[in-house]
Design goal:
By secondary structure, the protein is an alpha+beta fold. The chain has helices spanning about 1-10, 20-35, 45-60, 85-105, and strands spanning about 65-70, 75-80, 110-115. Strands 1-2-3 form a 3-stranded mixed sheet, covered by helices on one side. Helix 4 links the parallel strand 2 (about 75-80) and strand 3. The radius of gyration is 21 Å and the shape is elongated.
């Protein structure tokens, strides 16, 4: 139909969007373009990008584990509560974000979450 042809032709704003489908296809195209790995990236490139992110963050002192999640749009950092206090964890979060900005190339933004947890377990008998 004319609507479908128009939507396919106009999703890059080449022509005036006369149909609602043109706008919807353009929005879907923009969403897929902003997702890392959603387009032409190979699996190897995608995995390498996540590994680079995790490796960079693991280099900070006191880091136990790192997890790149949400297609690399978020990194969660678990620190050793015995080595890193609350104030240091907050500073580390800012330092990690700055290191990512200075070192890596990525679309959009990456959320950095530093988690510091201590647990005490006792049993009542």
């Amino acid at each position: 139909s004319q609507e479908v042809v128009h939507a396919a032709a106009g999703h890059h704003d080449d022509i005036r969007p006369d149909y609602i489908y043109t706008v919807l296809v353009a929005a879907a195209d923009a969403c897929s373009a902003s997702r890392p790995g959603a387009r032409r990236d190979t699996l190897e490139k995608y995995v390498r990008r996540l590994e680079e992110l995790e490796t960079l963050v693991c280099g900070f002192p006191g880091v136990d584990h790192t997890y790149a999640i949400q297609a690399g749009r978020e990194v969660r950092v678990i620190v050793d509560a015995d080595q890193v206090n609350d104030r240091e964890a907050a500073k580390m979060c800012k330092d990690i974000a700055k290191a990512i900005e200075d070192t890596l190339t990525y679309p959009g933004e990456i959320r950095v979450t530093v988690m510091r947890e201590s647990r005490t377990v006792e049993y009542a008998r």
